[in-house]
Amino acid sequence: NWKKTELDGRSKDELYQMEATFNEMIDHLKDNFQKQEQFVSNASHELKTPIAIVKSYAQLLERRGLERPEVFHEAVGAIDSEADRMQKLVEQMLLLAKNQSEEDHTTINLVNLCRKSISTFTGAYDRAITLINEQENVMIYANEEQIRQVVYILISNALKYSDDEIRVSVGQDGHQAILEIEDFGQGIRPDDQAKVFERFYRVDKARSRETGGTGLGLSIAKTIVEAHEGTISVSSTYGEGSIFTVKLPIEE
Ligand code: ADP
What we know:
ATP-binding; alpha+beta; phosphoprotein; phosphorelay sensor kinase activity; single chain; 7 helices
């Protein structure tokens, strides 16, 4: 009905306010749409490479596989590892697409979760991973499986990109739980530090491919942490090592 009556100062202000909010919403939607498009384009690019490799090895097998055993073994090995890669990519893309709802949240002790994750890793790898905790309990209200995933991603990266000891520290600062994963490896240049959380970003594509990297790990970690109203960041000195820090709200 406002059209019929004369707009007084207040309604005009409200109208401008609505327009500004509306424009902001449209910009936000556009931005999301572009990100989604970029994701689909990156994802198809990443999947095309292993598919092309599998196809060319299948053709090689067809031509030479029967008469040359070394060709047979090379081709079967490559097909197997490319299939693993595709499987990992698809699993990680599904993790990213998962709805981050609060449904499965429970009260968990971050210290225990880290202790368990570390023992899984030290059982499988011959590497020193030290837990440093100032207190026995750091309680958060979270999806346990997802937080375990974050810890897993950060420790596996530290293992991949360094050769020495890894330190995991869990503490509390006021209302925040603070988790730090520190390595003394290759480090990340300042320009790359902000980009490592982007989907599919890898500092060294070739090396990361060798180590089985997809460039999705840190973006999954970021999505999960932000869905828990937390933050994730990195501080690193190139050539010396990196510290990834996760902050999550404490369960009061
Ligand atoms: P990836 O599967 O390639 O490891 P991530 O999203 O987990 O993907 O990491 C993105 C990139 O960030 C990696 O390719 C690597 O270049 C860099 N990176 C991640 N963690 C570390 C680390 N602890 N030390 C040095 N570089 C790292």
